[in-house]
Each structure stands twice: as C-alpha cells, then as structure tokens.
Amino acid sequence: MNLLLGALTLGFIFSLLALGVFISFRIFAFPDITADGSSTLGAALAAMLLVHRVNPVLATLAGFGGGFLAGTLTGILATKFKINGLLAGILVMTGLYSVNLHIMGRSNISVLGSSTLSTYVDRLGTALTRRNTLNVMGWEISSLEASLLVASFLFIVLAGCLMYVFFQTNLGTAMRATGDNHEMVRALGVNDENMIILGLGLSNGLIALAGAFIAQYQGFADVQMGIGMVVWGLASVIIGEALVGTKQIGLSITGAVMGSVLFRLLVAIALRLGLNPNDLKLVTALFVFAAPGLLNRFKTLKPRSSHA
Amino acid sequence: MLELLAVSKTFNPGTPNELRALQAVNLTVDGGSFVVIIGTNGSGKSTLLNAVTGSFFIDSGSISLAAAEITNWPEHRRAKLIGRVFQNPFSGTAANMSIAENLALAAYRGKPRRLGWPLRKPLLGEMRERVSHLNMGLDDRLKNPIGSLSGGQRQALTLLMATWLRPELLLLDEHTAALDPKSADQVIALTDTIVRRHKLTTLMVTHSMHQAANLGDRLIMMHRGHVIQDFRGAEKKRIRVDDLLARFEEVRRAELLDESAAELLRRVYI
C-alpha cells in the first residue's frame, strides 16, 4: 500500500515535469532537452539552501527560479543566436552539469537533517489527524505518506489550474499562437522570440520545481538525477494524449498529469513484477519511440472500421 | 503615407545565385490609395512587400510609413502599423486555435500582451457582428478551430484580422492565388469593400490581370527589380486586361532581344 501511495505521490510531483515538457514540446514544438539539467538544478539549489537552513518555501522557489533562468538561456541561444534548438538545449544542459556540481560542492547532498517541505507537510498532517498511521479500508498506511500524497495532489491541481488560466490570457494566447504559426504572430505584432524565451523559462521553471520537490521527497539531491527526465516527461505527455486527446489545452494539461501518474504506477508495477531498475530508462525510451506510431495505428484504424 | 527611397536588396550576394531583387526602387503611396502591383516572375513585387513588412532588412535606402522611419524596425514592431494577408491561407491564421482566439490575437495587434482576458463579452459580440458581415456562415462557429475551415474562409478571416484595428497600410500578397475561382472572387469582393469602407492605404500584389485592371486606383508594373510602369488616376481607369497583356509581351520581347544581343556580342568578342 505504501508503494502505491509513493507511486501516486511521485506521479503528482513528476506531473510538473510533464507540464514543463508539454509547454516546450507541444505548445512551442521546441525539442528542449534542457530539462535533464534544469531538473537537477532545481534539486541542487533547493537542497543546498535547505542545508543552509533557508526556509523550505524560499528554497523551493529558488529552485523554480534557477530552472527559469536556465530555460531562458536556452531560449536566448536558440532565438537571438540562431542556434539549432536541440543544440541550444544540449549546450545549456551540459553546462548545467558543472554548475550543479559547484552549487552542491560534491556529487550529492542529503537534506534529511534539515526541515523541508516534507517535514512541514508531515507536521501539518499529524496535527490534523493526531496519529502516525492511518487505516484506509483495512490498510495500515503512514500518515506521512498520506499527507505527502494529499499535499502533492492539491499542489498539482493548483498548478494545473494556474497554467490553464495563464494560457487563456492575452500573453498565454500569444504564446500558443507562436507555437502554432510564428509567421502570423509576428504579423500581428508579437515578438515571437521573446515568447519562446519566456515559454522555455516557464517550462524549465516547472521542471526545476519538480526537481526541488523530488529532492525533498527522497531526502537528497544527486548530480545524476536529471538523466532521462525529458524522456520521462515525454512518456507522460504521450500517455496523456492517448487518454484525453490533444484538442483542448485544458484537457491536455489534465492529460499530462494523468499520464504522469499512470506512468509512475506502471513503473511501480513493472519494478514490483521484477523489472531490473537498470532497464527502466531503456524501456521508457523504447516506449516513447514506439508509442506515437502505435497510437496513430489506432487512430487510422478507427475511421476505416466505420466504413466497413 | 508610405515612402520608399532608393530601396535595394540583393539576395545571396557574391554567389552564382545572386539575385538583385530590388534595385533602387522609389515609390510614394499617398494615404488612402489602393495600389495594385503586377510583374513577371521574380520581378521583385513580393520582395517589395516583404521589404516593407520587415521580413528582411534592406541593403540600402529607406522606408517610412505614417511619418515614422521604419527602415530599422523589426518585423513585429512594424506590425503595429501594417496589416497583412499572405498568399498561403495557412500562413495568416493559427490552425489549432479557435476563430475567436485568432480574432482576439488580431484585436491586440501591436499592443503589449499581458495577463488580461482576451475573450471578453463586448469583444465576442463585436466578433459575431463583424464575422457575420463576411457572409460565410461563420457567426455560430467562433469556437471552432480555424484548421477546420476552407482556404477561402481562412483568407476572409485573415483579411478581417489584418483590418480589425485600422492599419496605416494593408499589404495583400497574392492573397487569392491559392484559392479556387469562386472563393477568390468572394475574397476579392470582400477586399474591395473593406478597403473602400475604411479608405485603407493598400498595396496588393497579384498575378491576375483581371484583378489588376479592375481593382485599385493605381497600377505598378515591376520587372527585374525596377518599377517600369506606373499608371494612375484616369490612365489607370482606362486600362484593360488586353493592354496589360500587350505590355507584358513587350517586356518579354525586349528581354529576348537583350539576351540574343548579349549572346551575339559574346560570340563575337570572346
């Protein structure tokens, strides 16, 4: 049961990653792989600040800010310096590896001794329920896990709603249009380069926020933790699109969150069934490779069957 | 008023593909004038429009519009003054967004995009009203994605978007060339109505001699990066399709003569 709760919580936290990847890959059609570096950056910044007894909320915000800056840097390289988008992401990601090592001072740091958002949530949960374990339908679960799950769920609902509202505003509409048709957007007086820079900043800010949460959830930040993040995020987005389609931004946001949770559950089940954890990234990569083709199969099959 | 002074643009300079698209072009367009531009392929007519929109920066010369020197303005800044309709119906609208969202983007042309709400009731009402004037049955389909519309409907909407806020200059780049004849006629009729009603300063590039003869109050013919003919007022009114075809034939012959003469010289002297 705790395994399930853990998978759900991770799913909710990682849906920030999925939302970030959704912004860059889907809204801007920009293959941004800065995520592998910016997620670690968020974790490293938050962890380092926590170790220095900074307020956890501020530390987490700093993680977001760091990711935002990293994203804008990728955007500036891609637009102002006309570097291929993929390469711009690779450059920033590679550079961030050193930056992350400098921030942490070594390859990993633990935050177990510091008060983090997790300890806040735990204290709040215990205060509300007045006990250390809960009994849900006959299962004993720790109130820590339950509180973390509820807190991450509430946060994701809030973040998803904010993101939905943002993409309905004038600025958000202009951003979506930039990804759709940058020629038109320029003709309507929007600086499309600035839209891309801001959009990638937002995307990587969310991804770094996921990193900062993960560091506090698992109790440490590691310089390698970001490897494969883009593919994980993409896997979630693709699952989400299979579930709810791509027609509406609100549905897509919900889909990305659902995809992330489902992906984490699948991972937990696969590991439970004996999948070698070392193979996880290979399997995920194969999934992202194969999934669009498979999904298209389904879509093209549907109308044909109606003719028969 | 639009004023181009000695505008030159060469693509791929110094390479075998060098193309002198504009060669010291001078052009003054009075406010409220509807200018039609025709020319042979590669004559520089689209390049002229793109020089004004800022798709690229010109090599030399200057461009001013509505008393502002815009030669060094980036494209998105010029958009504050300029409304555009492209040749490709896909270029002027965002296919995955709704009609209303596209129109809302146009309603803020040249204004800063902040966190305000675009689809407010008054604007939606105005959209319904203005879209109904298109007579394309789109009034109740404001929530539909633009991608589901026909090319003609998309061009009509792009035209509406380009003129939603009155532009100082309207640029139409062969905006009916990709449409079927019936849609093209509809869009042309709409163009004429909108330009007349708002007295818009307009530059329209076209391949259609018919449109060139019947629309606008001034006609410019371009060839090899030069303006070679400029009909205005009564002269423009008298022009018929046959006159234009004859003039094109003349240009073509002169061209042939030039090339054969050049060939002859080459044979004799090299």
Keywords:
heterodimer, A: 308 residues, mainly alpha, two-stranded antiparallel ribbon, 4 strands, 5% strand, disordered C terminus, B: 270 residues, alpha/beta, Rossmann fold, six-stranded mixed β-sheet, four-stranded antiparallel β-sheet, 9 helices, 10 strands, 39% helix, globular
What does this molecule look like?
The complex is a heterodimer of chains A (308) and B (270). Helix content of chain A is 77%, strand content 5%. By secondary structure, chain A is mainly alpha-helical. Chain A has one domain (2-231). The longest helix of chain A is centred in the C-terminal third of the chain and has 28 residues, at 280-307. Residues 303-308 of chain A have low confidence and may be disordered. Chain B has one domain: P-loop containing nucleotide triphosphate hydrolases (Rossmann fold). Chain B has helices at 45-53, 75-78, 99-107, 121-132, 151-162, 181-198, 209-214, 233-238, 241-269, and strands spanning 2-11, 19-29, 34-39, 60-65, 68-69, 82-85, 169-173, 202-205, 218-223, 226-232. Chain B has a 6-stranded mixed beta sheet with strand order 6-7-8-3-9-10. A 4-stranded antiparallel beta sheet of chain B has the order 2-1-4-5, with helices on one face. Chain B has 270 residues and is an alpha/beta fold. Chain B is globular, with a radius of gyration of 20 Å. Chain B has 9 helices and 10 strands. Chain A binds chain B through residues 166, 168-171, 173-174, 176-177, 180-181, 183-192, 247, and chain B through 53, 74-77, 79-80, 82, 84, 86, 90-97, 101-102, 104-106, 108-111, 113-119, 145, 161-162.
